[in-house]
Every structure is written in C-alpha cells, then in structure tokens.
Amino acid sequence: xxxxxxxxxxxxxxxxxxxxxxxxxxxxxxxxxxxxxxxxxxxxxxxxxxxxxxxxxxxxxxxxxxxxxxxxxxxxxxxxxxxxxxxxxxxxxxxxxxxxxxxxxxxxxxxxxxxxxxxxxxxxxxxxxxxxxxxxxxxxxxxxxxxxxxxxxxxxxxxxxxxxxxxxxxxxxxxxxxxxxxxxxxxxxxxxxxxxxxx
Length: 199
Ligand SMILES: [Fe+2]
Hints:
11 strands; binds fe (ii) ion
C-alpha cells in the first residue's frame, strides 16, 4: 500500500511554512524535516475527535490556513490516535470524544525518522490538557485556534496561529482550551519519540 497523496501534501505545506516562517523549528529539526523520508503505510483510523475537528471552525492566519486545509484534506488517510484513556486521571468520555492526534513523521511512519517526531493534534474548546512531561524536547506550532500554554518556570502564554512554544526535556506543561479549540503541530526530538507522556 502506498502512502496517500494527501499525506505528502501535508508534509509539503508544513515544510513550506517552517522554511519561510519558523526558523526556530527549522533549526530544531535539522535535516530530519526536509530529508527524503522512507515511508510506511499505516492503516487510516478515524475517531470521534476526528469528527469534532471536522465540525469545528478554527481561527487561522493567512500563513497557517494552507496547513490547516492540508490537515482537513488528509483526515481520512491518517491514523488518528489518543495517548490517554478513561484510566488516566482527568480524562473522561467527553474529553476523549473531542481530542485526537496523528503522526506525520515518526519512527513508525508514515514518514520514517529516528530523530524527529512530528504529530498533529486537535482539542475541542472547553478541554484542559493537564500537566504532563516527556523526555523529548518539543516545539509546538499553533496552526488553528488558540491555547493558553502553561509551562513550568515561565508565565503562561496565550497563543494563536503562528505562536511557537518550546519545552526542554521533561519540562512540565499544560494547555488550557477554555477560550477556543486548538489544532497544533508538535515537533519532538531526542529521547523516546513514541513514548506516552507522563502525567
Ligand atoms: Fe508536550
């Protein structure tokens, strides 16, 4: 099975955005974003959170809109997943019905990299992503909507389309979606790239 055209288009839109508008992310990723990745077919999967994403109008900017549109076009070709379940504190059914993410670049594919993970995540308005941390360093790139980014050791930042937020290895952080939903690209490097964050 081949990796769908829409997934290639989404990678191109993100590369274009990063190359022109996000030099911090470009240098964070090094070659791992722009290289000619091997691919792995991953069976598509939709979640309730996928439907919630499709039903949500997101604030975008002129610059981020093409990326958000590329995400919408790839919705049926990617594998939507969740890191948490009902066994995790602070995650209930309403949370799980309005949230999801998929990998674009990761050790497991669809674009294969051992040194970079790029995933796209959606959270509906009203949710709160409690404090969590992970070994990989991270940069969030806000694509659509707005979040209040709460990071240990610094003042909270309310960020809309184009806002980037960095976390060092194991820096605790939380996200507040009380004001708006969020579509975000998360870039990870170093450490165990596909491990579940700790809560
Ligand atoms: Fe994170």
